[in-house]
Amino acid sequence: xxxxxxxxxxxxAAEGGTREIRxxxxxxxxxxxxxxxxxxxxxxxxxAREAFDTGPWPRTPAAERGxxxxxxxxxxxxxxxxxxxxxxxxxxxxLVESEYDMDDIANCFRYFGNLVAAxxxxxxxxxxxxxxxxxxxxxxxxxxxxITPWNYPLLQTAWKVAPALGAGNTFVLKPSELTxxxxxxxxxxxxxxxxxxxxxxxxxGAGAVAGAPLTEDPRVDLVSFTGGLATGRRIxxxxxxxxxxxxxxxxxxxxxxxxxxxxxxxxxxxALTAVFxxxxxxxxxxxxxxxxxxxxxxxxxxxxEQAQAIVLGGPFDENARSGPLxxxxxxxxxxxxxxxxxxxxxxxxxxxxxxxxxELQDGFYYLPTVLDECDTQMSVVRDxxxxxxxxxxxxxxxxxxxxxxxxxxxGLSGAVWTKDTGKxxxxxxRVRAGTxxxxxxxxxxxxxxxxxxxxSGFGRELGPAGLAEYxxxxxxxxxxxxxxxxxxx
Length: 489
Ligand code: NDP
Fold this sequence. Notes:
Layout: E1 4-6, E2 9-11, E3 18-22, E4 29-34, H1 38-54, H2 62-78, H3 80-91, H4 95-117, E5 123-125, E6 132-140, E7 143-147, H5 153-166, E8 170-174, H6 181-193, E9 200-202, H7 207-216, E10 222-226, H8 229-239, E11 245-249, E12 255-258, H9 264-276, E13 288-292, H10 293-308, H11 328-343, E14 347-350, E15 369-372, H12 379-382, E16 389-395, H13 398-405, E17 413-417, H14 421-430, E18 435-438, E19 457-458, H15 463-468, E20 471-479
Parallel strand pairs: 7-8, 7-10, 8-9, 10-11, 12-13, 12-17, 13-16, 15-16, 17-18
Antiparallel strand pairs: 1-2, 3-4, 5-6, 6-20, 11-19, 14-15
Helix pairs in contact: 1-7, 2-4, 2-6, 3-4, 4-5, 9-10
The structure holds NADPH dihydro-nicotinamide-adenine-dinucleotide phosphate (NDP).
């Protein structure tokens, strides 16, 4: 069956393009999928435009839109095993992690389903004049382009699709060329849940070929993008001539600040998951460890000991605790960053190489790596390497910790570890990031907004603001008994 979904029909690429999807864990062929070109992108936008302008979805009552999202949540739960397996084959991530993701995705649909069904935020405005009925109504923005990355393919997609549909929009989704399968499966579930034809459209293909036209097309009203900083800049520029609404969820280089009075064992444990979960391919990864001077040696020694014990393996290897990188090109990039860091004076404490295990040679594995004695001038500290590489910086006091944490163009997330509550909250307030954890790392809930400050982007996903991103607030003023004002009399 063809994999592009346009106007409610499954279709092959107009120009016959296809792409092989290979599992990053061992290079085996997962499937060959259709690869869209600009003509397919234009057809998908036309279908979404038509569905928005004349189709039923934008005019469906909020309670019914919410109910559809709740049905999607149930269907995702029903098909969880198939979805998790498909996600693991595309990304190489451990099956158990994909299973957690599927629960989170169902919860995301459930959250927005309930939020939308509860009313959508329309309100009556008290003008002080009983002769006027003044209301603010929330309308859908229109046709949305949704572009997502490969690290959490369906999760990032759900954060956009659920609120976009909940608000009554229509959309064209373009997932990463590397990880298309769960997006295809989601289209089937949306149809099964009862979404009318044309409201959801899917093009698979390369960003520059199939994605770029979706960011330029004058028929598109909003572009919501999750991905890297360089692509985000291009998308913002592409959307500018037609003044589309833009939401950008970009990268991060997130500081994990550990004070000497932190709970040692817990801080070590979380510092490891902060950076090595999913081989560091997490936008909020705690890739920068900032550790107070007096704790430094013992803390780093313990991190290194535990990092060296992390077992690498494929998605279905139950002994494995971390998987491969997404591609050979991505591993090359990480190797270049580590080499640059060493050339600039970082000290290698562990890793810094591919594993020697012969069973892993067909996958894109890289050992958990710790680079010590780093500083913010090094490219491996400044840039998002997006791999299993922890850089360690020292600080003397609270003031220096905050200054170092903020010495980055990014502002996605960060964490502070201390038993001193006052210090924890002072630091959490001063770190310029969209999410700050205190004595924790990574958790999020769909009720709370997610997004970046500075060059980590703008706009918010999840929470009420995540729905508002896809709504226009319109003020309707109704003069109930107009009489001539005679302004010009
Ligand atoms: P990229 O920026 O390379 O790609 C993201 C998406 O954009 C892909 O679907 C890609 O297509 C597409 N794309 C690429 N070029 C264009 C273009 N010119 N026009 C339109 N679309 C385009 O990011 P990665 O896929 O490498 O993902 C990793 C990045 O995502 C990291 O920087 C990470 O921090 C960030 N991220 C941010 C999150 C957040 O919440 N802030 C969450 C998760 C990830 P294709 O790949 O098919 O070529």
